[in-house]
Amino acid sequence: MTETPGVSYIMPVLNEAEYLKEAVRSILTQDYEGEKELVIALGPSSDDTNVVAARLAESDSRIVLVDNPKGRTPIALNLAVKKSSHPIVMRVDAHSELPANYTRRGVETLYRVGAHDVGGLMDARGRTPKQRAIAAAYHSKFGFGGPAYHSGAPEGEAESAYLGIFRREVFDEVGFYDEEMWRAQDWELCLRIRQAGHKVWFDPELKVGYYPRDNFKALVRQSYASGTWRGEIARRFPEGKSIRHDMPPVLLAGVVSGILATFAAPLIRGHVSRQVQFLVDSARLAPVVYTAATLAAGINSNAQGMKEKVLTAGAFQAIHLPWAAGYLKGRIFGAAGTVDKGRVK
Fold it and tell me: What pLDDT digit, counting tens, does each position of 196-237 carry?
């Protein structure tokens, strides 16, 4: 292995015409001396993504296009890995922008610590007030419960890796992405890597600019799909269960109970015991307390200006509650067939 081995970037793409050009530019201009190739797996987009991709490929021979007619992310990733040729495989995203030193730092870390998969920080950003507010929610521990790739942690071994920088041979050893896992396929692959006795590593110096959904409707749909597949993970794997993932469903139950109690209270007043009335009145506080908590978290977030801080409070709710509903669905019934309808047109 040379000091600067060739790198194959793999990118699943679906409806990303607005972001693709900048993402590709950030990849092919990396400050790295080794050879580079970018394999883009094109799903059945309904916008101009495929046209943009074709123009990019015509202008640079390092870009390779493969067709992914089913549009599923794990299928796209597998097609791209199999089409690629270099000893280092880096998953990238059309919604992301790599800093110039990302490849150099990632390859160095991979061999410095003896890892087989390395990931870093998702540095969420925004172009509009709503997208910046959603990005602020991504950065907050109140938003996602503090995974290292959102809010940071010391360098060290990790459960999973954001995107992923791999030694190619790990795919020969543990297999490719599970194509039944329409989401959370990276976590499942990292589980197999760890079970094979290899390291999955978090390096906080690897910061990837990421543009989240730019409206609440799309965020709600993404959160629901993410929660559903997280529930599927908990359903399938003992290692996928965590008390942290049980908290949002408890929160959802409290909020729903509070809303129902608010409507029920006038109807039952005078017809039930004081104890029951007290429980009903107490339940009514849950939505108020949760709304106040999200507002406080929004004000204390890194959002700029009061308008964006209030929008961030709304983003927390658009993350927590749909995720919780999805998690319950996936945990009880499974996630088969669940897609992110914020991405699929």
Answer: 999 999 999 999 989 999 999 999 999 999 999 999 999 999
Two structure tokens written together for 97: 């922008």
The 3-state secondary structure of 165-198, one letter per residue = EEECHHHHHHCCCCCCCCCCHHHHHHHHHHHCCC
Phi, psi angles (nearest 5°) of residue 35: -65, 150
Q: Which two tokens stand for residue 308?
A: 């964006």
Compute the distance between CA of residue 335 and CA of residue 235 in angstroms, rounded to an integer. 10
Residue 16: which of 57, 58, 45, 56 has the closest Cα?
45
Q: Per residue in 121-133, is it b (16+ CB within 10 Å) or e — as a string?
A: bbbbbbeeebbbb
Q: Which two tokens stand for residue 302?
A: 């890194």
C-alpha dihedral (329, 330, 333, 336), degrees to nearest 10: 120
Residue given tokens 């989240």 in the structure block: 212
pLDDT tens-place string over residues 50-82: 999 999 999 999 999 999 999 999 999 999 999
Structure tokens at 257: 């109970």
Q: State the number of CA atoms in the 13 A half-sphere of 6 facing the CB.
A: 10
The residues pairing with 224 across neighbouring beta strands, listed in sequence order, are: none
pTM, two decimal places? 0.88
C-alpha atoms less than 13 angstroms from C-alpha of 78 in its C-beta half-sphere: 17
Cα–Cα dist 32/5, whole Å = 10
Q: What are the tokens at 18?
A: 């607005």
How far apart CA 113 and CA 195 sit, in angstroms, is 18
Q: From the CB of residue 205, how many other CB atoms can be counted at a distance below 10 Å?
A: 14
Using the predicted structure, report yes or no on whether residue 144 has a pLDDT greater than 80: no
What SS3 string covers 43-101?
CCCCCCHHHHHHHHHHHCCCEEEEECCCCCHHHHHHHHHHHCCCCEEEECCCCEECCCC
How far apart are the C-alpha atoms of 64 and 59, rounded to whole Å? 11
